[in-house]
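sanity check this chain:
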Amino acid sequence: MKRHIQTVALLLAAAALSLSLPAMGQMTMDHSKMGMAAAPGMADGEVRKIDKDNNRITIRHGEIKHLDMPPMTMVFTAKDKAMLDKVKVGEKIQFIAIQEAGKMVVTDIQPGK
């Protein structure tokens, strides 16, 4: 009797699974968003302050989409100190920023458009 109950339970489980498989096959997933942050893109900004001694630049910037960051003014660390020699306070720029080791880091600076 116990064996009969186990067999019936197994058949019912198999039937339930076979009914759900077609539905699972029709599910769609957006694999482009799985486990990946948006690729860094250029953001618009204006140089407000340059601190070459501490390798920092203050930028008033527009939205930084890949970081989900609204417009604001903030201090960034320059990935390469030489970037700070290419800009002046008050200059419009385009830049790429990333979050690295808990800091906001500028990895590229170009003249603004």
About this structure: Confidence is low (pLDDT under 50) at residues 31-35. Residues 26 and 86 are 53 Å apart (CA to CA). The chain has two domains: 2-29, 43-111. Residues 2-25 form the longest helix (24 residues).
